[in-house]
Amino acid sequence: MAKTLRTSGDYTVKAGAGYDSGSGTNTIRLDAKTVRIPGDLTVEGTQTTIDSQSLTVEDQFIEVNRNNSTAGTEDSGIFFNQGSSNNQILYYDADQTEFVIGSTTHDATVSAISNITPGKIRILAGTESDQAATKGYVDTTVGGGFSLKVAGDDSTQITVATGNTLQFTGGSNISTAGAEPDTITLSLDNDLTGITSITSDASNGDLTLVANGTGHVVINDTLTFSGMATDPTATAQTKLYNKTAGGGGTGLYFRNSNIGSGTVGELISKKKATALAIALG
Question: Which residues, in sequence order, are CB contacts of 209 under 8 Å at separation 6+?
């Protein structure tokens, strides 16, 4: 039979001595299949324990650290009890103004987190390759340190550890610059266009153009030689260069250690060749 107890004022149930000071020793037990409280429930003790298999909360948001009135001074979050292992925790670090997830030797009665071992976040179920990587993990995985910053008019060094590859891919052309001690190799699937200058960055180093297989280095335009102040050293390769015209009338000279013992020779012009032919009959 249902019963209703109604009072026009506050209704207090006391169990044991010391209630007014919050130190009572007796227990009030409600033994029923369901206890329903239509109004608000306020618990003023220091600890609330819910011993149930599942907890369902209708609210969209859960507030923790409710009585904090000072901005940005208290850590707060959620502890996950792991039995004899360290607790796992997801909390907001007020000093660092960042969220942290990991394990700690603290329990939920602590007021500030001072011991934390960062944990892992699994994005998808599966192997460790599915985990969100930390900066330290990335630095270690790519070979002991990797930094890359590509920006116009910026002197930041681009470093690539030994054994790693930095690949640039683009459309019809690529503009880039590299400086020692770093070496950048570019492999292109397209011809370069709009190039106005190619300069070797090695001191007194050669600039070598090499065709693939039986192909040739082809120049489809005027080839201009800058004037040389002195003759180059004779080697087994023919060197073609320009300086003040001499008896040949062209100013285009060559030198090869296997030709004339490396003596400098000048290519002769058509006019000079015709005059020489007439003179020699």
Answer: 217
10-residue stretch averages of pLDDT, the chain, 281 residues long:
87 72 75 90 84 90 87 89 94 92 93 91 65 68 54 53 58 48 54 80 86 92 90 93 92 94 93 87 70
Check: CB of residue 146 under 8 Å from CB of residue 159. Answer: yes
CA of 86: how far to CAs of 64, 80, 92, 101, in Å?
22, 9, 18, 13
- Residue 164, C-beta contacts closer than 8 angstroms, at least 6 positions apart: 142, 143, 146
Rounded distance, CA 152 to CA 138, Å?
A: 25
Task: Please name the residue that has the structure tokens 């492999």.
Answer: 187
Residue 146's closest CA among 136, 132, 133? Answer: 136
Between CA 96 and CA 74 the distance in angstroms is 11
User: Domain spans of the chain?
Assistant: 209-281
Closest CA to 77 of 133, 55, 122, 88: 88
Cis peptide leading into residue 181 (ω within 30°) = yes
